[in-house]
């Protein structure tokens, strides 16, 4: 269990500095993500299931999807261990949470979103490490 806890802290350290797409703040500052929203379970030898439940600052569609995308892209790039990643909106915090959950956990839709230059630029700005 200690290992899973360490992994969760590691995950949180990666996502807490992601910037909000509309504000100059980080997701940590806005409490979109907190340490308790990260859950890590060991599912195999050296492989972990990482579950993140985030709370959008406003129940506003496109932004929640975008934040989910930022979380996924940054973790795909930065997580140093083998993992499966599931990202959800905290229950009851969004009008179309089911749709968004489907969208941000669908590899093809994520890939398609990242092919959109405008979207990709926003994601890149949000996931860039603070100087």
TrEMBL record:
Keywords in alphabetical order: Chromosome partition
Range of residues in the leader sequence: none
GO biological process, one term: chromosome segregation
InterPro entries reported in the protein's UniProt record: FSCA_dom_sf (IPR034904), MIP18 (IPR039796)
Source organism superkingdom: Eukaryota
Coiled coil stretches, renumbered: none
Record family assignment: Belongs to the MIP18 family.
Record text on subunit structure and interactions: Monomer and homodimer. Component of the CIA complex. Interacts with CIAO1. Interacts with IREB2. Interacts with APAF1.
UniProt protein name: Cytosolic iron-sulfur assembly component 2A
Species per Swiss-Prot/TrEMBL record: Bombycilla garrulus
Gene encoding the protein: Fam96a
């Amino acid at each position: 269990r200690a290992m899973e806890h360490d992994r969760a802290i590691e995950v949180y350290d990666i996502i807490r500095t992601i910037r909000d797409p509309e504000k100059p703040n980080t997701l940590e500052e806005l409490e979109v993500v907190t340490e308790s929203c990260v859950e890590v379970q060991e599912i195999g030898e050296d492989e972990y299931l990482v579950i993140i439940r985030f709370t959008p600052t406003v129940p506003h569609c496109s932004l929640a999807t975008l934040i989910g995308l930022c979380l996924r892209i940054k973790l795909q790039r930065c997580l140093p261990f083998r993992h499966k990643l599931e990202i959800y909106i905290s229950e009851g915090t969004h009008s179309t949470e089911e749709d968004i959950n489907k969208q941000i956990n669908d590899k093809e839709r994520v890939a398609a979103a990242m092919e959109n230059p405008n979207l990709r630029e926003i994601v890149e700005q949000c996931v860039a490490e603070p100087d």
